[in-house]
Amino acid sequence: MTERKLAPSEMKMPEEPRVGRAAVIEKLKRWSPPYCQRLFQEDDLIELCYRAREAFWRDNTMLTVEAPIKVCGDIHGQYEDLLAIFDIAGWPPATRYLFLGDYVDRGPFSLECISMLIALMLAYPDKIFLLRGNHESRPVNMQYSVRLYETFQTVFYVMPLCAVISNRIMCMHGGISEDLSDLKQLERIERPCDIPDIGVIADLTWADPDDKVTGYVESPRGAARIFGKDALEAFCKQHQLELIVRAHQVVQDGFLFFGDRMLVTIFSAPFYCGQFDNSGAIMDVDRDLKISFHVFRPELIKKKSVFIAEGATNTSDRANPDGAATGAPPPANASRATTPL
Predict the structure, then answer these.
(1) Helix axes 21-29, 110-123, angle to 10 degrees
(2) Bridging pattern class, strands 162-165 and 62-65
(3) At the N or C end, where does the chain have fewer CB atoms within 10 A?
(4) Where is the secretion signal located (predicted)?
(5) Distance from C-alpha of 272 to C-alpha of 252, rounded to nearest angstrom
């Protein structure tokens, strides 16, 4: 049973903002590691959470967004990389973004990542959209207090779980679900909610594709299921979709196709945790629903990652279920790839 949590309307929130959203964004733009924990008072961030919770609560569990838009995968507390993405691909409101979750955990600056994204969403609600990942149910950052941690959790519990772009591209953090026979089922999901081990919510945040399986089978992760190419084809046909876009797995080149290009995995945290030599990528969907990828390649300079925007080509459709996916690297000096849907 999901624990009953207070709805936003049941919680006290200041009538007037202590710190304007623009001020929050500008402070975070001027961020540098030695001063990262001195930017805000705790009450300022708690108020930011209150207002984000209200905004997420008003959203549907499945968002409906229109192209053009850029789609980003896992960030995992790599705040310098998040800033690099905005600097290279464009800042809101000039550029529209859909983020697929996993903003926190693993990396060192979870609090900065989620605070910046929430502030941007509140400032430009029709320009930036945030989905929930499987890590939006785990510790975000305990450098402030248990009170702040618990407040962020109440935000995570009401975040949308998936989005559909122009009625043809479905996006989520994890993957498809055998239990989702009608997309209208998503309207009946009660929020706030935690992420269970099985069912639609679990699959949307935890599921993985695997070309070695048929249908749906239990995931070795211990939550949700893995699914094969046949299950993907059936799901897309049933829901009249042309592409599934998800995150959740490290991919060497930042993006990886699966199942005759009916699904693509995007991972936006290059040099992940300082332990992988992977690139990061974001996907661009233009007005005609052609997709292309910006790939950000890490170079170690003075123990710090520097990112160079490059194009990318198709990769092979090999994935494994242990949280990492592999594929053939793009050739040197590859041009930006575009794919019509």
Answers:
(1) 140
(2) parallel
(3) N
(4) none
(5) 10
